[in-house]
């Protein structure tokens, strides 16, 4: 058995950053920026008023000063003349500052009578001017790679970048295997269960930026499995679930080999997830996940998500770990790296007592995994442990 770190290094070799494509800005949320983009305009493109009020040509003003109102500037409607000492231009938030203006007096500080304004006492001291290019200027860059979120979409829009260069999304084909499985919504026989992992993993991979294609469930026969696997053609990554262990019906590796699988490794010193397998069929990467529901989800977090980052051109490495104190003792660990479902709260973390890899209820209550090194001794409350946030 190889270590988790060795297995992850091998898995990451199965992928490389995918091609760049352009998408309309409205579809860029969640995508990964593939090349730096540069602003081709300044924002704001002119000095602008930050408030509703009066633009004047003097910064040094005091109570009782009077100004003659000579015109108006609104957002989208520039005042074309200039303002001189003793004059004011009625101005609104976002309007270009008239030539000569150096300060905006907010309207609350002004008494207006006809076309004359008089300043009140306790004047607000701000100039209320947004300088041209104060947000960004021509040539300012949004650096790739970067997973784009709503604020990036707003910034790109402000830069008028309507077509965004992003990485193509990796296509992941997911094949669940086993005679005992039926799709959610179907009626199982009394010796059957619902295929849960395929939908759980599809959701996980989608959130990570992939396109998940859940293929029909394969029966435990070479013919059925070959048929299901052949439907994966064209995907960047094939993920199988189950049939990975040593039982008579665990045929995934054998069947994949008849399709040309070059296997990189089989079996990792981790719990859950021991019977993990990885390799390549032609150009397609393949990861064979163990069937136990929690094993497949944990291996999805630990191996598949970093591989998806790699396809997306993001820095691909082991999931980030933080140190946290235990709020409940832990028994000694055996010889495999153990990923324990846990809850982190108020700065401390506690593992669930039940860690059987069939228990999805426990996984769904967990918000973290405690990572125990092989042969870690028993730990007490307050001892620091490594934690991956889910
Ligand atoms: N003699 C041994 N038996 C087992 C070993 C071993 O080393 N020696 N390893 C155990 C470990 S650890 C794991 S993990 C499992 C993994 O086995 P497989 O990958 O072959 O998985 P299956 O046998 O097909 O299924 C295991 C379990 O999970 C259920 N399952 C499978 N697929 C799904 C799915 N898509 N959705 C929901 N549930 C699924 C399946 O019904 C079984 O209950 O092997 C141990 N055995
Ligand atoms: O390695 Mo298995 O995944 O412990 O349940």
From TrEMBL:
Question: Annotated pathway, please?
Answer: Cofactor biosynthesis; molybdopterin biosynthesis
Q: Look up the record and name the cofactor or cofactors this protein needs.
A: Mg(2+)
User: Per the similarity annotation, which family is this?
Assistant: Belongs to the MoeA family.
Membrane-spanning residues: none
Tell me which residues make up the MoaB/Mog domain: 173-310
Q: What does this protein do?
A: Catalyzes the insertion of molybdate into adenylated molybdopterin with the concomitant release of AMP.
Q: By its UniProt entry, which Pfam families does this protein fall under?
A: MoCF_biosynth, MoeA_C, MoeA_N
Family annotation (CDD domains): MoeA
Name of the featured protein: Molybdopterin molybdenumtransferase
Catalysed reactions listed for this entry: adenylyl-molybdopterin + molybdate = Mo-molybdopterin + AMP + H(+)
| E.C. designation(s) | 2.10.1.1
Q: Which GO terms describe its biological process?
A: Mo-molybdopterin cofactor biosynthetic process
Q: Record's Gene Ontology CC terms?
A: cytosol
Q: What keywords is this UniProt entry annotated with?
A: Magnesium, Metal-binding, Molybdenum, Molybdenum cofactor biosynthesis, Transferase
**A GO term, aspect molecular function:** metal ion binding
Q: Which InterPro entries match?
A: MoaB/Mog-like_dom_sf (IPR036425), MoaB/Mog_dom (IPR001453), MoeA-like (IPR038987), MoeA_C_domain_IV (IPR005111), MoeA_C_domain_IV_sf (IPR036688), MoeA_linker/N (IPR005110), MoeA_linker/N_sf (IPR036135)
């Amino acid at each position: 058995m190889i270590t988790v770190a060795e297995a992850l290094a091998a898995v990451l070799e199965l992928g490389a950053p995918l091609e760049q494509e352009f998408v309309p800005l409205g579809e860029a949320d969640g995508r990964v920026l593939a090349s730096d983009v540069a602003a081709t305009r300044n924002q704001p493109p002119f000095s602008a008023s930050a408030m509703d009020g009066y633009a004047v040509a003097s910064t040094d003003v005091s109570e009782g000063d009077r100004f003659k109102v000579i015109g108006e500037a609104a957002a989208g409607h520039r005042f074309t003349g200039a303002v001189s000492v003793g004059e004011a231009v009625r101005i609104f938030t976002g309007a270009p500052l008239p030539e000569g203006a150096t300060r905006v007096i907010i309207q609350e500080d002004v008494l207006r009578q006809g076309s004359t304004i008089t300043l009140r006492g306790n004047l607000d001291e701000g100039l209320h001017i947004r300088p041209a290019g104060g947000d960004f200027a021509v040539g300012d860059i949004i650096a790739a790679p970067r997973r784009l979120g709503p604020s990036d979409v707003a910034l790109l829009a402000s830069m008028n970048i309507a077509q965004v260069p992003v990485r193509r999304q990796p296509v992941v084909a997911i094949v669940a295997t086993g005679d005992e499985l039926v799709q959610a919504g179907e009626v199982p026989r009394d010796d059957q269960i619902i295929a849960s992992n395929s939908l759980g993993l599809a959701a996980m991979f989608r959130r990570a930026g992939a396109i998940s294609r859940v293929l029909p469930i394969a029966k435990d026969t070479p013919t059925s499995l070959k048929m299901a696997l052949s439907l994966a053609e064209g995907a960047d990554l094939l993920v199988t679930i189950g049939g990975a262990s040593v039982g008579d019906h665990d045929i995934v590796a054998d069947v994949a080999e008849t399709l040309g699988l070059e296997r990189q490794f089989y079996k990792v010193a981790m719990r859950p997830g021991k019977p993990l397998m990885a390799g390549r069929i032609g150009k397609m990467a393949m990861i064979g996940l163990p069937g136990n529901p929690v094993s497949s989800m944990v291996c999805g977090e630990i191996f598949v998500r970093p591989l998806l980052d790699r396809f997306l051109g993001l820095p691909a490495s082991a999931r980030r770990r933080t140190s946290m104190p235990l709020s409940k003792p832990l028994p000694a660990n055996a010889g495999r790296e153990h990923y324990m479902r846990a809850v982190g709260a108020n700065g401390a973390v506690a593992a669930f007592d039940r860690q059987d890899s069939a228990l999805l209820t426990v996984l769904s209550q967990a918000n973290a995994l405690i990572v125990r090194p092989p042969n870690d001794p028993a730990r007490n409350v307050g001892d620091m442990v490594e934690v991956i946030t889910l």
